Amino acid sequence: MPLGDLEDEAMAKCLIVAQDQVLIENLKRELPPEKSFKVAVAASGFEAGIQAESFNPDCIIVDFSIGKIEAVQICQNLRKNIDFTDIVLIALLPDDGQPMSFDRSSINETFKKPFDAHLLAERLRTLVGAKKELV
Fold it and tell me: How many domains does the chain have?
């Protein structure tokens, strides 16, 4: 096995599906390589599908601000694919005062915005750490 592959196995790979640059930067700051995280970003469902295939993430964070229908579709499509059934799927829900009803069975965790990025990072360490030994 090439050394790059061994390094990837020791790191938690996280795909962020979002368009909010502030959110993306906050999450990247809380999920640094020094803490055994490797982060990739996708801005749409199409990009998320491509990234999921090539990046092989352990966790996918989907910001529902990209659109509820697209976000739910991303989650459902991932769960339908046998290669992605073990991925930790986290939904970031907008706090716009509107109730959001949808099938949450494909999602492991939900966080309502605004949220503490540090708390999300700790939760990711716990969830992904169950599958991998993170430093």
Answer: 1
| Total-model pTM | 0.87
Q: How far apart are CA 63 and CA 16, in angstroms?
A: 8
Q: Which domain holds residue 22?
A: 3-129
DSSP states along 54-123: HH--SEEEEEGGG-HHHHHHHHHHHHHSGGGTTSEEEEEE--SSS------TT-SEEEESS--HHHHHHH
Q: What is the CATH number of the domain that holds 78?
A: 3.40.50.2300
Answer whether 131's CB lies under 8 Å from 85's CB: no
Query: Is the predicted pLDDT of residue 132 greater than 50, yes or no?
Result: yes
| Tens-place pLDDT, residues 22-40 | 999 999 999 998 888 999 9
Pick the closest to residue 65 from 119, 125, 21 (CA basis): 21
Residue 134 lies in a domain: no
Q: What is the spatial distance between Cα 65 and Cα 10, in angstroms, rounded to a whole number?
A: 31
pLDDT at residue 135 above 50? Answer: no
Distance of alpha carbon 68 from alpha carbon 71, whole angstroms: 5
